[in-house]
Q: What sequence folds into this?
């Protein structure tokens, strides 16, 4: 007789826990704080990943607000939103200068295409880089490049 009581107690306990979990699942609201911060945390993670990827660019490109022209390539600070071949003082290839004159502006779309295959996007450019072919890495790098700007309220 004792075995039946033990089984019944275990059965009721398991059923109660499952019922509680089901009720929580259907009636509990997601924390408003968690829902607001999750996209921010994801974007911060992407920017951090982009910062790590950008270390591979730093031998040729300055990415600081000082915009040094002493590197092989042009500085990348503030590049998002600028036209191709638009950093003053840097001697661009004729291909980059022509791309800028024809209206190429560095935005998410153009950077994505350029970073995937620079020689295809701007044939004849002098950048010695075969491309970043991983979609997620390109997205992360572009998100990081978007942070290399003066604060909007700094005017």
A:
């Amino acid at each position: 007789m004792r075995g039946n009581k033990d089984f019944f107690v275990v059965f009721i306990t398991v059923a109660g826990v499952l019922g509680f979990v089901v009720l929580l699942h259907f009636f509990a609201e997601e924390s408003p704080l968690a829902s607001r911060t999750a996209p921010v945390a994801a974007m911060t993670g992407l920017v951090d990943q982009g910062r790590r990827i950008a270390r591979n660019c730093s031998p040729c490109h300055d990415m600081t607000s000082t915009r040094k022209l002493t590197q092989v390539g042009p500085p990348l600070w503030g590049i998002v939103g600028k036209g191709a071949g638009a950093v003053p003082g840097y001697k661009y290839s004729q291909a980059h200068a022509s791309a800028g004159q024809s209206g190429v502006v560095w935005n998410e779309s153009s950077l994505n295409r350029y970073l995937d295959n620079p020689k295809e996007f701007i044939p004849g450019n002098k950048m010695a880089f075969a491309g970043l072919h991983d979609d997620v890495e390109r997205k992360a790098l572009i998100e990081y490049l978007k942070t290399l700007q003066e604060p909007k309220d700094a005017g």
